[in-house]
Design goal:
elongated; alpha+beta; two-stranded antiparallel ribbon; 14% strand
Length: 151
């Protein structure tokens, strides 16, 4: 259609760029002499992942078992999910995918309670990016445009 804006790239390109930025931050943290705190990174990623996927709510209820017997019972239920999910296939460079899996594995060795798959990481990076776009954080868009010009 005439006058319609056509984006030069899709969501898969944005996700790939966000992932490359994530890997670059890990490499720069180790190469430039700044010790990268993988434990803190693992904790931050786990907290963000939990926040985006929803969480469980535990409530306590006092229930009457019989006329003179009451018991305190805990009930756990999953909170309402925040977003609905959309599945898409993304093609990553094999070497980059392995680098990310190794980084996640390193974080799991440092913090045994940490568990995240590469797919979950990619989803989280994109969800965080969209959250920043919605709140109009110009820095994020500037970084994405800068990384696009490097490609």
């Amino acid at each position: 259609m005439a006058g319609e804006f056509v984006a030069p790239f899709g969501i898969d390109t944005i996700i790939a760029l966000l992932y490359k930025q994530f890997l670059q931050h890990i490499v720069e943290g180790q190469v430039k002499g700044k010790p990268l705190d993988l434990y803190k990174l693992a904790q931050d990623l786990q907290a963000a992942h939990t926040a985006y996927r929803g969480h469980t709510i535990t409530t306590q209820e006092l229930r009457q078992q019989s006329e003179n017997h009451w018991s305190l019972q805990e009930r756990t239920q999953k909170a309402a999910a925040r977003p609905k999910y959309y599945e898409m296939q993304i093609t990553l460079n094999r070497r980059d995918a392995f680098r990310g899996e190794v980084a996640l594995e390193d974080m799991q060795h440092i913090d045994p309670s940490f568990h995240m798959t590469l797919e979950q990481l990619l989803s989280l990076l994109f969800a965080q990016f969209m959250g920043m776009v919605r709140t109009n954080q110009k820095v994020v868009l500037d970084e994405l445009i800068a990384s696009l010009s490097e490609e």
